[in-house]
Specification:
Keywords: Membrane, Transmembrane, Transmembrane helix. The protein is an all-alpha fold. The chain is about 85% helix and about 0% strand. It is elongated and about 35 Å long.
Length: about 70
């Protein structure tokens, strides 16, 4: 019985890691585009895009390390 319980979280990890990688990469793309637009065109929307991209990177990184375990709240 313990073997089954120990194997169950391992099936959840790849999905959570893949989602974390996708969120992180999406954050890098959005953040890079936003900061480039902010630097090149001096627009506040570019700064907001950069901040949103940074937030996605943080969320993606936390999902990648979480392993898909829900937090008790």
């Amino acid at each position: 019985m313990m073997h089954q319980d120990a194997a169950r979280p391992n099936h959840d990890k790849p999905g959570a890691s893949a989602r974390g990688v996708v969120l992180t990469l999406l954050g890098v793309v959005i953040g890079s585009a936003g900061y480039y637009a902010s630097w090149r065109f001096q627009t506040p929307i570019g700064t907001l895009g950069g901040i949103a991209g940074l937030a996605l990177c943080v969320i993606g990184t936390s999902h990648g390390h979480d392993g898909g375990t829900p937090h008790a709240g």
